[in-house]
Amino acid sequence: MLRTENVHFRKTNKNTVVKRVREVYLRQDIPCLSSQCLLEPQCHQRVKVESSLLSTDTPYFLIPDYSVALRYVELLEQEELTNIIFTETILQRLQNEDKSRTYKSLRQVAKDPRRRSIVFSNEHCEGVSVAREPSETLEHRDWRALVKVAQWYRRHLKQSVPVILLSEQFTQQDCGTDVDAAVTVMSLKEYLDQYWPSSAVLHELLGSLKEAILEEDLISQSQDSVVSKKTASTGYQEYKPMSELEAGVKSERFFQGVMRVRANHRDQAFIRGDSNIGEIVIVGPENRNRAVHGDIVVVELLNKASWVAPSTHISYNPEEIHTAGDDDEEVSNQHHLREIKPTGRVVGIISRNWQPYVATLQEGSEKDSGSFHLVLPLNAVIPKIRIRHHDAKVLANQRIVVRIDSWPINSQYPNGHYVRSLGPAHNLDTEISAILIEHGISVSQTTQGFSDGSLKEMPINTPEKPWRPEPAELTKRRDLRKHTVFSIDPPNCQDIDDAISIREIGGQIEFGVHIADVSYFVKENSLTDLEARARGTTVYLSDRRFDMLPKVLSEQICSLRHHVDRYAMSVMWTLDSEANVLSTWFGRSIIRSACEMEYEQAQGLLNGKDVVPGVDAKLCKTLKPAVVLLAQTMRKVRARRMASGGLELESSEVKFKFKEEDGGISDILPKQPLEVHQIIEEAMVMANSYVAKRIYDGFRESAMLRHHPPPIESHFKMLLRAAESRGFTIDTSSNLALATSLRDCANKSSDDIEFIKLLKTMATMAMSEASYISSGSKPVNEYAHYGLALEFYTHFTSPIRRYADVVVHRQLMACLLGTTPGEKTASAPASDLLKNGSKMEQVADHLNYKNRESKLAQKDSTELFQTLYILQKTRKPGQENSVDDDDDDDEVPFTETGIISEIRENGFFVFVPRFGIKGPVYLKEKSGDISVPLSALQEPAVAKARSGAGNNKDHLTLIHRCQMDTDLMTQISVKVPQEALVAHQGLSKTLQLRLFDKVKVALRLKKSHAHRHSIYMTLIGLDHEGIASTSLRATAPRVAPGRRLVGNNKQDEVKRIAEQDPALAPFTERELIQGIQAGEGEDQKKKKKGGAKRVVDPEELYHQTRPEASLYSLIDAFDRFRIIEQSS
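Structure for DIS3-like exonuclease 1, as requested:
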């Protein structure tokens, strides 16, 4: 091993020059990391390395120089470019010159196994390292080093692979005369012209990057002369040196965290400080100081005089409407409780989070003659971006992709560059593409593409040569083909992950869950495996899906279709008559499903039908007792888990019905719960929990588990106050206490389903985010799943659509290897990935990110189709192309009944269960005027009479100059001006709007040029029928049994009763009278029914009150409804 030195000079933030000397030890065992290595053994096998390998079938290797790596990193990030050799020379220089963002991007490319790219340690490789000559510039020394690397690879691989040096600074003449002819120097344009002539995306990206670089150079040349003058106009400040930032954070003078901009109030951002300081609010762009949403920033606290309470208004900006009620729960509580929060300003950036952004050219910019234009990102929390483009007319009304390059201190907006166009704004396919890009869904997944190498790994399954199990493999599996196995899924399901078997044997129950054996076909570190790992999950949108696996697996060979043999991973239990587990078996099996049932068919059999449509009568006779036995068994299993604290919360999932003729949306339907949903889900939960414990026993430091931590107590504040407004008390001390309280609320309000739904939704919103963990990253007592009340949990049952399940399958098989004498298994010993806790934690983090973004994409897709539906419903015939949304007469009224779900200072949010839509209703205008529609102020009898009249437009007549008093948690009181009472007969003096009141609203669409259209609502009036049937029973006074109104003076009696019960104090006299009379009526009904006792079926002891949403919906809701951002 030889020793040498590298010397370089570095300019610090204080403009001093520091000389650095680094010792370098040259080695002879640096591997080439090429799968074409001709040595025996190959050089990467002689030393332990954790890296991808250069591909065997590549036509060339690429080596970018510093000019390309520094300024064209985005081009190198494109998935088309593979087999790139990133030299240590270039990466070290990026580090030395504080180009950490570029350095991390290149390292990320090398870490992606699909890219088959590597980092070559040429500076430590004997025979390749190059010393700097006297008077030689650093650029020329580094260029010589790259040329030598290219020559070394040519010699090492016996001239088998050409090498292309990419440079924007050097040419072929700069290589010298003794260079191999197969070492070619190309500019990026020359390279794309020769090897990617038809890739418009790559060529367009190169052109925009060149324009951005030109602009950056111009700015750099002029910046010194204008910076002092411009800084005052922008209000931005220079960032503090990194050394000062690090010292300040360590001493707690500064605070570090991920900056999040509030989606519904873009003027406010925040970071999460330590446990003492809590959340720090950053108000205004000057205090944000050029930081962008998602950046890791360092914040300095401002003095207490400037501390603020987060805004309690609903935003008036239309692009913010669709997220106005969906901030994280801590923010939601602050809206109501007016908590004063510390404020701060950004004094430094630790790490930028700049990403590709979907944007639209600012309206009117296409008329400007200049080449610089402002674009508005689709995500409203991102500031406007200044880009350079030679022809703005081409970009007008288009959704385009842009990236941020820099944000100089003298610029109001960040500088960026145009990447590509997605298509016309508000076009369906364009908006879907925008959703995918916003949430980081890869190009390969969105185009449904798998590489040729991946497809070559797939088994053959054609009509001429259908796939069949291999005889040798059958001897290694438990044969369950004679068992009655069946699946229960939604209609037209193609990717069937799971199937069930159950039967009684000698007084005991044999119960099995059988899962598609994906890991048999997808070998670890194969091309298919690497692609599946990168994708992480199948992405489901409202009208399409993007698969994690090739269709030959997901829809054919792995899918557990009926009447064909399929490989499975099975969990088999022997249970007693009370569903207690006597024994458990795990292993690989071969099954033949008897039937692919739909949920409605299985529910029909469970309801007692002997035959259901779509299933053979003879088969129904076999399946019915199995379905009934399954239901009886799972009820008992579920009852025990619920008794331990399992939660039944709420989701508002909807599905869309599409017209066959034109693809339009014919209807939005809430997903209807069936008991069979619970039954199947409980079976899957049981399998997941047992597998979780088994893999933990085998992999104490690296088991892939699913973790759901207890919620933060402060997140329950909104739920507690909402429940109190109805007279309920919620105990949140544990999951069992919370579950008991919610069930108590449900039992006492069984006639008000919407109230229970919203209460459970609030509980869901308070939950922390569930996530994957490697078992070694947390102590055992933190493994528990709070929502399911289970000590161990994982994902095992959906390997076709979730990569985490594939990992769990592999860990389970590794655990089973050799555990039982004579165990028949086809597994190999556990790989380093399965055993390495640190690596497994990285995989878990990646899957958490992909899972979260997939759910957010699904949520955005749902909102997109909801707006399209409202657009259809509010357009008049013949006005399909109209974009004028300011005139109410141009819209077809579209009214629905909703529930007030949240009270704010200038209005309230309404949830419409029929369509799963939540939107704002404004009472206070931006000008400060408080106005209420005439229809909402009319007495019930007047409103009913007026609504029966034809062409009634009372909801369009606004009563202005009202007065409003707001209790931010429970109610709004609107006082009508005297002149309105005189002008209009039959008006109430006040309008009371309470949380959970039912109201009639008109659903409307606020159209936007740069952003997506958003739904808002206008109040029509109270739903008096709903109030009469539910509000007086559920919201009105909880008067003790036996209360009576004695005598003629009801007012005195009501006053006496209210004084005896403080809980009745908030209610009006009228409400108390109605509540007492309602109680008297219920007493009379009970007396008429008599005291006969009903005989209870023992099975009902285990049958839970049917919830309004499925358990898996609950699990997904933890992420979909409230994804709590964790501090860095």
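The chain has a mean pLDDT of 83.
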